[in-house]
């Protein structure tokens, strides 16, 4: 399962979610503006920006990264 930490109005978050959906990659979204736990998880990983993508077998990363997202397909 792929987890995307995101926030409303974030273009890179929207691009990331659209890429995953368009490529039939199952994912769940955690909104860092609605969940303090989600925000703390992002900070604990050392990130200060969203989107942050977490998935099995890859290092967590942030930003819209089609090159890394393709590895999830």
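^ structure tokens above, recovered residues below v
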């Amino acid at each position: 399962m792929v987890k995307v930490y995101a926030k409303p109005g974030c273009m890179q978050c929207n691009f990331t979610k659209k890429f995953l959906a368009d490529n039939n990659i199952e994912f769940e979204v955690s909104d860092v503006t609605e969940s303090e736990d989600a925000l703390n998880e992002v900070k604990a990983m050392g990130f200060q920006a969203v989107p942050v993508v977490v998935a099995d077998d890859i290092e967590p990363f942030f930003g819209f990264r089609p090159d890394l997202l393709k590895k999830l397909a």
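The beta strands are 2-6, 27-31, 52-54, 61-62.
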